[in-house]
Design goal:
The protein is of the alpha+beta class. The protein has two helices and six strands. Strands 1, 2, 3, 4, 5 and 6 form a six-stranded antiparallel sheet that branches. Strand 4 and strand 5 form a beta hairpin. It is globular, with a radius of gyration of 14 Å. It starts with 12 loop residues before the first strand and ends with a strand.
Length: 110
């Protein structure tokens, strides 16, 4: 069992490479990955807490940003609507350990 003080990796960041066929362009021009959710957790959240949340939507961890305790979660969705439903399922759980949940937006840095 992995607890709060366990070390999974010494790396600050790991992430799955984005599949370009999974990118959707929204009506406002923003781009996001149709089968990924980003979730920020409070610092006190354990790996077990994170796993409990992603199990709500049948997801799996494919990335992590240590500095903000954010997890990149892959889910089985093929449309923006399906992704929205998965996000709502997590939001409706009202888990106090979650600071934020959102689509995995693609940032274009010029």
């Amino acid at each position: 069992k992995i607890e709060k003080d366990s070390v999974l990796s010494g790396e600050e960041l790991f992430e799955k490479t984005i599949d370009p066929t999974k990118i959707i362009i929204d009506t406002d021009g923003s781009q996001f990955v149709v089968n990924e959710i980003m979730i920020n957790f409070v610092d006190s959240a354990t790996f077990s807490d994170v796993q409990d949340v992603i199990n709500l939507v049948g997801g799996r961890i494919v990335g992590f940003i240590k500095s903000v305790n954010a997890y990149q979660i892959e889910v089985i969705t093929t449309t923006a609507e399906e992704l929205g439903i998965k996000i709502q399922i997590i939001r409706q759980n009202n888990n106090p350990l979650i600071e934020g949940i959102f689509r995995n937006y693609i940032l274009n840095i010029l």
